[in-house]
């Protein structure tokens, strides 16, 4: 039983940590590509900004889903009978 709880805690930490890392990398790439494209074609910057915010919301939603799954494993563990 203690092994299951310990491995669940490790899995929860890895899940939340890797989600945060992936989101940070994704936001960095997204922001960099937005700045490159806005510098290349300034007249399209408002349209690109709207699309950037939509993708940023989807990117953030993936991280929030993984945090919820991590908390589910931590506090309402389905592996414990």
TrEMBL record:
It is found in: Cell membrane. It is a multi-pass membrane protein. It comes from the Bacteria. Its main location: membrane. The keyword Cell membrane applies. Keywords: ATP synthesis, Cell membrane, CF(0), Hydrogen ion transport, Ion transport, Lipid-binding, Membrane, Transmembrane, Transmembrane helix, Transport. GO terms for molecular function: lipid binding; proton-transporting ATP synthase activity, rotational mechanism. Residues 10-73 form the V-ATPase proteolipid subunit C-like domain. GO terms for cellular component: plasma membrane; proton-transporting ATP synthase complex; proton-transporting two-sector ATPase complex, proton-transporting domain. The chain crosses the membrane at residues 6-31, 52-76. The keyword Kinase does not apply. The record marks 60 as: Reversibly protonated during proton transport. F(1)F(0) ATP synthase produces ATP from ADP in the presence of a proton or sodium gradient. F-type ATPases consist of two structural domains, F(1) containing the extramembraneous catalytic core and F(0) containing the membrane proton channel, linked together by a central stalk and a peripheral stalk. During catalysis, ATP synthesis in the catalytic domain of F(1) is coupled via a rotary mechanism of the central stalk subunits to proton translocation. HAMAP family: ATP_synth_c_bact. Belongs to the ATPase C chain family. This is ATP synthase subunit c. It comes from Paraphotobacterium marinum. The gene is atpE.
